[in-house]
Design brief:
The protein is mostly helical. 43% of the residues lie in helices and 8% in strands. It contains 21 helices and eleven strands.
């Protein structure tokens, strides 16, 4: 499926190149893909649409690294303690907001070209086959325009951004004022509703394309962000219960993080990457079909710019397992059966120095990674730990073929649970909310929430607590969503903290928490004994203050709701657009 999808992406560049060569002597500038000189057929529109998918591949669009640092999920490298996103000192001149804004509007301009090209062709379409094909192309284009504006609305300037409904024809057309956030919201929902009504539930081929289920998921999320729980729940329920979509949790949580089982039944919106094409192209080029997130997240051959924060590491270490689930029992080298040390979700999300149950780049984590300089865990997500011994084994370097799962069903389950309890205010939805949370937990063989012998899985071990709506909401906020979805999707944690109104308090609370590190003796691959110094994180401070760890001290001091809750309007756009205020 990956190969077929990428054939279409490569076709975009081939067609544009051929077009420029064939029309070299024409007066029309071949580099301007206007409706006058390119958008003549549905094939042209299809080519333009695939360029939109190519824009979605731009890692600056999701800004996963920067958005993660803005939340409470990550810590930066010791040698990069001045990171402006982690310390909440970013400004309108920072690369994060400028690059993200540029990537999103590049996608919007491309979608507008496709939409206008299709509109101009509509009167020439005479067969049902062509009309249906045009409708499907239009639905995909409008999905992406709606998605890009949803990202802008939820990311920048409290939702007040510039709306471009048409392709600019003159230089002055680029100079538009800000639109009110309500107008932006109405605009992207109109696009997404069109996509929802016209996209297929599934694609028989080219599984990487967007679907009606993806549109429903984004619409539901937008209403949840508005605290409109009733409407959000309708969209989420459709995603969950509509058999036409075919969604189901993947059998193994690890299926969502590596090249294994990509585009699986849990995936609702996924960015497809591949190592099989464009190896000769610079990794930073727009033509690149791979990503380089592995180098930001990996310590084994990578730059390791993103680490799990201390509280998150401890939460993963304390992720309670179901002692009644056989998946939590392993056989050691002596043939003895014992309980897993850490949960499946923990082991497949982060690498811990003392995890004996899951290799890391082909050997024990302590043997493969440098757990030092107060680095006690590394993210496995976005890395190739399961298929290479070092990220530099991938040649050419700085490339990864791991798909980015933007929306998956587990996220929908947890947002639906939040809707059922109306953000913690409705006791009538508690049991139903626990059902969907427990489905996510059951997949990873975790201890379930609620009374023993209750719910869908009565034989599973439960925590034997009686939950009210507030307790369920607290669990969603501080346990389930961050542990299940850490550093995933579009700024999930950053937006969650903001919409719950807890960002500043969260940084203040976490900045007061103190941990310390202890050593871990281990056996090297060659059989020699060695020690990973200060590599196991423990709660509480130590009298040896050099081993103590505190996160978010600068963030707690610097965070300002007005300046940091949203990305500011980028300075490059302010300079370029004279009517922007």
């Amino acid at each position: 499926m990956k190969a077929r999808f990428f054939k279409y992406i490569l076709l975009v560049f081939i067609l544009i190149l051929n077009y420029s060569c064939n029309d070299f002597l024409e007066e029309v500038n071949p580099n301007e893909l206007s409706t006058d000189n390119f958008w003549k057929t549905l094939d042209d529109c299809e080519t333009g649409l695939i360029s939109v998918y190519g824009t979605f591949n731009d890692i600056k669009l999701l800004s996963i690294e920067q958005e993660s640092h803005r939340s409470d999920l990550t810590h930066t490298a010791v040698e990069d303690a001045t990171n402006p996103y982690y310390n909440q000192t970013f400004t309108d001149a920072s690369d994060g907001p400028n690059d993200k804004w540029n990537a999103l509007y590049t996608g919007i301009f491309r979608t507008n070209q496709v939409i206008e090209g299709l509109s101009n062709l509509s009167s020439q379409l005479t067969t049902n086959e062509d009309i249906q094909r045009a409708d499907i192309i239009m639905a995909q284009a409008r999905f992406f325009r709606g998605l890009f504006y949803f990202y802008l609305h939820s990311s920048f300037n409290k939702g007040s951004v510039v709306i471009y409904k048409n392709v600019p024809k003159e230089e002055s057309d680029f100079y538009k004022p800000l639109s009110p956030e309500e107008e932006v919201q109405e605009f992207f929902r109109e696009d997404l509703n069109f996509a929802y009504e016209n996209l297929p539930a599934q694609w028989q081929k080219d599984k990487g394309r967007v679907t009606a289920g993806a549109a429903a998921s984004v619409l539901g999320t937008s209403y949840l962000y508005d605290k409109n729980y009733e409407i959000a729940a309708l969209y989420f329920k459709d995603v969950i219960e509509n058999a036409d979509y075919g969604y189901a949790l993947a059998p193994h949580v690890g299926d969502n993080f590596t090249t294994r089982n990509e585009l699986n039944s849990e995936s609702i919106l996924e960015i497809v990457y591949s190592l099989n094409y464009k190896s000769e192209v610079n990794v930073w080029s727009d033509l690149q079909t791979a990503n380089n997130l592995n180098f930001s997240f990996s310590r084994v051959g990578g730059w390791s710019l993103v680490y799990p924060s201390a509280w998150l590491i401890m939460a993963y270490k304390n992720d309670s397992i179901d002692i009644n689930d056989p998946r939590n029992y392993v056989t050691d080298e002596n043939g003895n059966t014992r309980l897993r040390k850490y949960s499946l979700r923990t082991s497949y999300s982060i690498a811990l120095v003392d995890d004996p149950d899951l290799d890391y780049y082909g050997a024990a984590p302590a043997q493969m990674a440098e757990f030092n300089e107060k680095k006690s865990a590394y993210y496995r997500k976005y890395t190739n730990w399961d298929i290479v011994s070092n990220e530099n084994d991938i040649v050419p370097n700085l490339r990864s073929g791991v798909n980015v799962r933007v929306i998956r069903l587990a996220d929908i389950y947890l947002m639906y649970a939040e809707c059922l309890i109306k953000g913690g205010s409705d006791e009538s939805g508690v049991q139903e909310a626990l059902k969907y949370i427990n489905r996510v937990r059951k997949r990873s063989a975790l201890q379930l929430l609620g009374l023993q012998n209750s719910g869908e899985y009565p034989s599973s071990d439960h925590d034997n607590k009686t939950y009210n709506a507030k307790m369920v909401m607290d669990h969603l906020m501080y346990v389930e969503r961050p542990l299940e979805l850490s550093v995933e999707g579009h700024a999930i944690r950053t937006i969650d903290l903001r919409r719950w109104g807890i960002t500043r308090q969260r940084f203040m609370d976490l900045s007061q928490q103190i941990y310390h590190l202890v050593d871990f003796p281990y056996t090297k691959i060659n059989g020699e004994s060695d020690v990973r110094w200060q590599s196991i994180l423990v709660e509480g401070g130590s009298s040896n203050t050099t081993t103590n760890v505190q996160d978010y001290i600068q963030a707690a001091s610097n965070y300002n709701e007005e300046a940091h809750a949203y990305w500011p309007l980028p300075s490059r756009e302010i300079i370029a657009n004279p009517v922007l205020k």
